[in-house]
Amino acid sequence: METPNGTNSVLTTLMHEVPPFLPEGAEVMTMTVDIPPGDPGTPPHRHSGPVFGYMLEGEMVFELEGEPERVIRAGEAFWEPGGDLIHYQTANHLTDRWSRFVVVMVGVPGEEMLTLVDEEELAARSDRRAPRPGA
After folding, report:
1. Homologous superfamily of 27-127 in CATH?
2. What are the φ and ψ backbone dihedral angles of 42, each rounded to 5 degrees?
3. What is the pTM of this model?
4. What distances in angstroms separate CA 29 from CA 52, 102, 106, 109, one per listed residue?
5. Is residue 18 pLDDT above 70, yes or no?
6. 110 φψ region: left (φ > 0), alpha (ψ -120 to 50), beta (else)
7. Which of 53, 85, 89, 97 could connect to 103 by a Cys-Cys bridge, CB 3.0–4.6 Å?
8. Is 90 exceeded by the pLDDT of residue 76?
9. Mean pLDDT over residues 95-107, rounded?
10. pLDDT of residue 134
11. Taking all residues of the chain, what is their mean pLDDT, rounded to a whole number?
């Protein structure tokens, strides 16, 4: 992106996505998430709307339903569409340092921004999970 006229600011596009939907009357929450060394992060869950994030420090193992797990490193942006899709992992696989990211969650009014998925649903949808290393 170009520098705005009359400034010395530098704008750097980290990611450009068009989410599949934005809920009408959406609520937006911005937060930082700190994950201790070796911590598995939030258990499998889903978000009511799209989520956008940026890794500030460390690394995170990131896994969405239907996609292979991948490592997001400091300086990288990520996103997920939300809705019915299960977010399996936000793990810090580093054993010697914390990982930290900022996340912007867009939510459906009146619904939780994050809902945990129970074992029964995970088992029923196991065919939608991509093969994982060592699994």
Report:
1. Jelly Rolls (2.60.120.10)
2. -65, 135
3. 0.86
4. 11, 11, 7, 12
5. yes
6. left
7. 53
8. yes
9. 96
10. 66
11. 91
Residue 115 to residue 34: CA distance in whole angstroms = 19
Give a three-class secondary structure readout of the chain: CCCCCCCCCCCCCCCCCCCCCCCCCCEEEEEEEEECCCCCCCCCEEECCCEEEEEEECEEEEEECCCCCEEEECCCEEEECCCCCCEEEEECCCCCCCEEEEEEEEECCCCCCEEECCHHHHHHCHHHCCCCCCC
Structure tokens given for 2: 């170009």
Beta carbons within 10 angstroms of residue 109's beta carbon: 11
For position 49, what pLDDT does the model report?
92
Residue 10: band (very low, low, confident or very high) from pLDDT cuts 50, 70, 90: confident
Domain regions of the chain by residue span: 27-127
| Mean predicted confidence (pLDDT) in 100-123 | 94
Residue 63 has pLDDT above 90, yes or no: yes
